[in-house]
């Protein structure tokens, strides 16, 4: 069924050196003109998106002020956490000092933003200071809402058979240990969950299932372990072909799939999880409006499941201080939960001097670093156009990409965008998005990280 690999190992690695960085660097970033300005631009958040914008704007603007608000000293390469939680990568491979990426001339404020007054163009910081801006780029990423699962806290990850790749780097390390403890036990039930909200790297919960299946098979005792996947909706992934592929592969690999269940509570001491049945009339899609009240709703049918290992995926949203600001979506599918931007221009729908980029935005797909790579030149071009009073020249296609790990040593490079029901947008002629291969695994393992750092440096 699978096509033979066209490249041998040596050819691939030779090619990969280039793929990792240089072929992903557009000339526009290098040759673009600069704009003279007196404006003050504030970038909130210095993760993948904020740091990419700081570097791009530092190159394009002369005379203005750019302030980057980022509290953390360390940058985390989150796409590596899946490999840490699977026991494939050493944790320190995923960390770098933020100081390496902050460009010269950019003022780095090491503090949390606490509130945004969009009408008066003012940010309050956690230390009580305020910042005024002429233009604002919101890039604060995602809030992990573990508290919406009763009894759950990220501090529990690694204890009582609980794993969660999203919690933090430490959480990924402890998830690996929790899986290993389950394996060493030699038998038992593992439950893999998904969230009833959009999540960053929508493939990660499935990647954790597939890599764990590889480890169970390698133990030689696969039949002694039960594996269940509990999904809140009918689909497992937004791209239709991949959705069907994963479902079929789970069935073939003996994973029991249950749909329309969300994890509502956990009892770590008893190793029991409560799931609330939320279908089929309230059928979930990634556009579904899910408010906090719905997580707490009484009188919905629930089931209690015993587990030996459970992978918890928390509900996610924009951070509370964004939700409490006028910048949050007021209606539509992202109401109350995500930043209100035009999903093509990245400009705020009601505050034209504000742009959003990265995980924080309300969009039907997009919560990946690969999306940040595609969004950054759009935000750069459109923000500069607004500063000059010009029409917005750039449009984001919705491009996103997920190296869907289908086992330790194999993956598929799934790239798609908004159009044609999330049709594939393959970047490389030698990689078929419907073909799982060692080639794509090597890309995930060795080449995507340098490409990611090039995005942060504003070079890709
Ligand atoms: C387990 C896992 C696997 C993933 N796998 C992939 C993958 O294979 N491919 C892929 O492309 N992407 C993957 N991703 C997703 C990718 O990491 C994110 O989409 C990307 O980091 C988004 O960038 P961002 O800048 O929007 O958010 P982040 O990189 O999370 O950065 C947000 C920044 O905002 C800062 N911040 C937060 N609150 C405040 C505040 N109040 N004030 C100021 N700053 C604040 C934070 O400190 C942080 O630095 C994965 C993510 C995870 C967790």
Topology:
Layout (H helix, E strand, L loop, with lengths): L8 H12 L6 H5 L3 E2 L3 E5 L3 H13 E2 L2 E5 L4 E3 L4 H5 L9 E3 L9 E3 L3 E5 L4 E4 L4 E3 L2 E4 L4 E2 L17 E2 L5 H17 L2 E6 L10 H15 L6 E7 L8 H13 L2 E5 L1 E7 L4 E6 L14 H4 L6 E5 L2 E3 L4 E2 L2 H4 L30 E3 L12 H19 L12 E8 L2 E7 L2 H4 L15 H19 L4
Parallel strand pairs: 1-3, 2-4, 2-11, 4-7, 11-22, 13-20, 14-15, 14-20, 15-16
Antiparallel strand pairs: 5-6, 8-9, 9-10, 12-21, 17-18, 18-19, 23-24
Helix pairs in contact: 1-12, 3-10, 3-12
The structure holds flavin-adenine dinucleotide.
Explain what the structure shows.
- The chain has helices at residues 9-20, 27-31, 48-60, 81-85, 169-185, 204-218, 240-252, 292-295, 320-323, 369-387, 419-422, 438-456, and strands spanning 35-36, 40-44, 61-62, 65-69, 74-76, 95-97, 107-109, 113-117, 122-125, 130-132, 135-138, 143-144, 162-163, 188-193, 225-231, 255-259, 261-267, 272-277, 302-306, 309-311, 316-317, 354-356, 400-407, 410-416.
- With 460 residues, the chain is an alpha/beta fold.
- The strands form eight sheets. Strands 7-4-2-11-22 form a five-stranded parallel beta sheet, covered by helices on one side. Strands 13-20-14-15-16 form a five-stranded parallel beta sheet.
- Residues 1-31 and 281-293 have low confidence and may be disordered.
- Residues 44-50, 69-72, 78-79, 81-82, 112-113, 139-141, 165-166, 200-201, 204, 319, 321, 358-360, 367-370, 372, 401-403 line the site of flavin-adenine dinucleotide.
């Amino acid at each position: 069924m699978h096509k033979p690999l066209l490249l041998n190992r040596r050819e691939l690695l030779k090619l990969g050196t280039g793929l990792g960085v240089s072929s992903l660097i557009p000339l526009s970033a290098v040759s673009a003109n600069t704009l003279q300005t007196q404006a003050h631009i504030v970038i909130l958040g210095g993760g993948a998106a904020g740091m990419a914008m700081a570097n791009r704007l530092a190159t394009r603007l002369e005379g203005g002020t750019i302030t980057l608000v980022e509290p953390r000293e360390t940058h985390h390469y989150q796409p590596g956490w899946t490999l840490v939680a699977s026991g494939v990568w050493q944790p320190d491979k995923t960390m770098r000092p933020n100081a390496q990426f902050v460009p010269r001339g950019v003022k780095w404020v090491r503090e949390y933003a606490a509130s945004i007054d969009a009408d008066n163009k003012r940010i309050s910081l956690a230390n009580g200071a305020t910042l005024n801006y002429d233009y604002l780029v919101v890039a604060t990423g995602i809030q992990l809402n573990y508290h919406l699962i009763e009894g759950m806290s990220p501090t529990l990850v690694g204890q009582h058979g609980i794993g969660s790749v999203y919690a933090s780097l430490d959480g990924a390390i402890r998830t690996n240990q929790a899986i290993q403890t389950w394996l060493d036990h030699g038998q038992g039930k593992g439950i893999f969950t998904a969230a009833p909200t959009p999540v960053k790297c929508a493939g990660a919960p499935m990647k954790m299932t597939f890599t764990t299946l590889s480890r169970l098979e390698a133990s030689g005792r696969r039949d002694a372990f039960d594996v269940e996947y509990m999904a809140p909706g009918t689909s497992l992934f937004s791209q239709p072909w991949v959705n069907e592929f994963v479902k079929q592969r789970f069935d073939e690999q003996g994973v029991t799939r249950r749909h329309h269940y969300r994890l509502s509570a956990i009892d770590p001491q008893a190793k029991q999880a409560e799931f609330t049945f939320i279908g089929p009339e309230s059928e979930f899609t990634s556009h579904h409006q899910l408010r906090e009240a719905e997580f707490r709703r009484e009188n919905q049918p629930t089931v209690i499941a015993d587990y030996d290992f459970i992978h918890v995926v928390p509900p996610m949203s924009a951070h509370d201080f964004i939700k409490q600001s006028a910048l949050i979506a007021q209606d539509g599918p992202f109401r109350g939960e995500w930043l209100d931007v035009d999903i093509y221009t990245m400009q705020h729908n009601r505050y034209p001097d504000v742009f959003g980029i990265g995980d924080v935005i309300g969009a039907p797909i997009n919560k990946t670093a690969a999306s940040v790579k595609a969004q950054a030149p759009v935000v750069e071009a459109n923000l500069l156009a607004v500063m000059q009073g010009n029409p917005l020249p750039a449009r984001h296609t919705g491009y996103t990409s997920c190296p869907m790990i289908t086992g330790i040593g194999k993956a598929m490079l799934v790239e798609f965008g908004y159009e044609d029901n999330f049709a594939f947008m393959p970047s490389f002629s030698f990689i078929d998005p419907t073909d799982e291969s060692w080639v794509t695994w090597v890309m995930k393992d060795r080449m995507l990280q340098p490409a990611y750092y090039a995005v942060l440096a504003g070079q890709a």
